[in-house]
Structure formats: structure tokens, C-alpha cells
Automatic annotation (TrEMBL):
Localization terms from the record: Cell membrane
UniProt protein name: ABC transporter permease
Domain of life: Bacteria
Membrane topology summary: Multi-pass membrane protein
Amino acid sequence: MADVAAEKTGTAWRSRGGDRRSTRTLRLRTSAVLLTATVLAVLLVPPLVQLDQQAVDLAAKLEAPSLAHPFGTDDVGRDLLLRCVYGLRVSLLVGVAAALTATVVGTAVGAVAGALGGWVDRGVMRAVDTISSVPHLLLGIFIVAMFRPGVWPVVASVALTHWLSTARIVRAEVLSLRARPHIDAAVSGGASRWRVTVRHLLPGVLPQAALAAVLMVPHAMWHESALSFLGLGLPTHTASLGNLIQEARGSLLAGQWWPTLFPGLFIIVPTLAVAGLAGAWRERINPRRRSELML
């Protein structure tokens, strides 16, 4: 009886693991399709749709979605499909640039703190904790307010408020790597602290830093959209997703749903796609987490 019960339990676990693997596969494929569709829209829609995204046509303002305008038009008759695509371009530029900058800064700070240890580590992490105590959006507004509206002030604002989590992740990974036997062997062999950091510690933290950068892209896009929605990000004439949603508030109250829905989807869909792919990546670089999820 015990053997039969054990066999049934093992079969149930294998079935559960198979279901979860199939769910992860479906999630991965769906995320890849969504991300591919996003990239193709950014690359192909502008040359295929022979319209000027800034062209005003008051006779066609707030038209519902149709064959001529698949996403409808805004309150001055501009094609929303083109406006959303150009807005996504700007948001992706801000997201990628801010994520790369924040990752470089966070990796450098975290690696220095973890590698040097002692009072350097304590001082750096206290500074990180102090900056983290200020809400990101409030600090971002303060940084953007010092410059004229534009892409690069928003990139600087997002990057300077989002390197903190990367610094914590990299520091924790460096501290974990420092306890490995091969690091002790390198130090015992006479390797300098700089050589150990560059040759052994940094290569070990790069996968985690790269994952943090990927996950930061949609977060940076949301941050840029929030700043633009508040009127503190990109100039109002720039077709950013935050600006499009801000311009559509009056239309939504009047019953026109499409000027708000489609820019919102252009923010949500890339976020879900990147989150799904990053989750699969996290499970690949962390086998312990993957084995736990399969139980």
C-alpha cells in the first residue's frame, strides 16, 4: 500500500510539474509574440501608413476606430495608430536609455560596496537607504524641474532614481561570490582586490545585472508616462504615451474611449511581454528557483 501511495504521489508531482512547465512555455511564447508585435509595430507602421502623425484634420476629430483609422482619431483629427506608435518609440528610447544608465551606475556602486566591504560598504549602503527613503516619483519630479522639458532630462530623472535596486542586487551577489572557494584561492594566490573584482566578481554578477536592466525598461516607461501625464516630462507636442493619455482625459469623460484605451494598451502590452520573458530568464539563471517551482 505504501508503494502504491508513493507511486500516486510521484505521479501527481510529475503531473503538476508538467502542468507548470506547459504554463511557463505558454507564457514564454505569448510574451515573445507580444514583444515581436511591439517591435514590428514600431518598425513597420510608420512606413506602411502614409500619414503625417502631426497632421491636424478638424473635420475628422474624435472619429471612432475604422478601416481608415484603425485606432480612431484624437481631438484634433490626428491618426491615433501613428501617434501611439511614435509615442511607443519615444517611451522605448527613454526606457532603454534610462535602464542602461541606471544599471551601469548601480552595478558600479554595488560592486564597489561588496568588494571593498567594511566602512565603504556601510557608508555606501546607508547612502542608498537614504535616497531610497524619498519616493521615486517625487525625486524624479525634482530632477526634471531643474531642466527644460525634453527626452534627456527624463532619462536622467529615471536613471538617477532607479539605480538603487540594482546596487542592492549586485552587492548581495558580490558578497555571495566572495564566500566561494575559488575567490579564497585567488586571494591566497596573491591576486589583488582589483584583479579579483574584475576577473571573478563582475563576470559573476553580470547575468543578474542584465536581468535587472531588462526588468527596468518597462518600469522606466511607466515612470516617463507618469511624468509626461503630470506635464513635467516630455513637451506636450511630443507624441509620448503619457502625453496621449493626458490629452485624452476630456474625451473619456465625453464617452470617447479610444483615445485613452489604445495608448494605455501600448504601455501595458510591452510591460507584460518583458515581464514574461524576464521571468523565464530568471528561472534559467537561478536553477534552485526553477527546481522549487517545478515541485
